[in-house]
Write a sequence for this structure.
């Protein structure tokens, strides 16, 4: 790393610690202008743009507050989010190549397969002992079409009062939201799920929490009997896969239903 970049990143970290968020963002952009793939620059920029608890902190609070009896996670990776489930929660993790670095609870079953393969071969009700999903966290491939299929597949197994969480719904910028991937720091085009659901499922209650690094959407008002998206899956996928990042110009926050990273407010949305 160039000495000037290291200095700027150090200054950005100090500004972030002092809650001078705009200054931190400006310093990070200076770094990225010279080194567009600087991971630390992106991480600090994200933290300064979306201050407060990160998504794991919010997920932990949600588990504490809702105490779901059943929890399904798509995209396990190291298991750092899966271990947030409370004792006694029946958990299902789905990931073709998890790299577990955390000891998952004994009530957890991990399926080493893609989510498409899982839903084609398994009855989720049976895997959960005959019970519906009460909390789901979708964090698989950062591709809009995969996220949409995951949502359609998981909703039909959800209790009507269940909560579905969608990660990476508030991208940092166009480059890090590219599909296919073009950067180390990457959220993909998952964000397109928000305008897609707003159009095809206006009955859902959708709020995207302004939490680092790239937002966490809370979806409530689920309807396991709905076939709207299932019946129009090809149409919706084609329509929103083609949506350009420029769609977010002007009022990104409103278009993605952004809400403050404030737990008392978020808790109201959960109930």
């Amino acid at each position: 790393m160039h000495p000037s970049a290291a200095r700027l990143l150090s200054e950005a970290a100090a500004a972030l610690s002092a809650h001078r968020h705009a200054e931190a963002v400006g310093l990070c952009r200076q770094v990225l202008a010279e080194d567009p793939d600087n991971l630390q620059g992106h991480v600090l920029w994200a933290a300064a743009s979306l201050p407060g608890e990160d998504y794991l902190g919010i997920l932990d609070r949600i588990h504490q507050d809702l105490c779901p009896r059943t929890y399904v996670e798509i995209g396990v990776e190291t298991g750092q989010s899966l271990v947030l489930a409370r004792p006694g929660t029946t958990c299902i993790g789905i990931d073709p190549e998890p790299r577990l670095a955390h000891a998952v609870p004994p009530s957890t079953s991990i399926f080493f397969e893609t989510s498409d393969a899982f839903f084609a071969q398994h009855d989720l009700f049976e895997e959960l002992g005959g019970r519906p999903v009460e909390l789901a966290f979708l964090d698989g491939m950062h591709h809009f079409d995969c996220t949409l299929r995951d949502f359609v597949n998981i909703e039909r197994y959800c209790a009507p009062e269940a909560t579905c969480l969608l990660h990476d719904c508030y991208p940092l910028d166009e480059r890090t939201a590219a599909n296919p991937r073009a950067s180390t720091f990457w959220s993909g085009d998952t964000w397109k799920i928000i305008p897609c659901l707003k159009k095809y499922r206006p009955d859902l209650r959708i709020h995207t929490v302004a939490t680092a690094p790239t937002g966490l959407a809370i979806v409530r008002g689920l309807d396991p009997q709905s076939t709207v998206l299932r019946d129009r899956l090809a149409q919706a996928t084609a329509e929103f896969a083609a949506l350009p990042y420029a769609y977010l110009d002007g009022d990104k926050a409103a278009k993605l239903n952004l809400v403050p990273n404030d737990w008392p407010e978020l808790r109201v949305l959960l109930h």
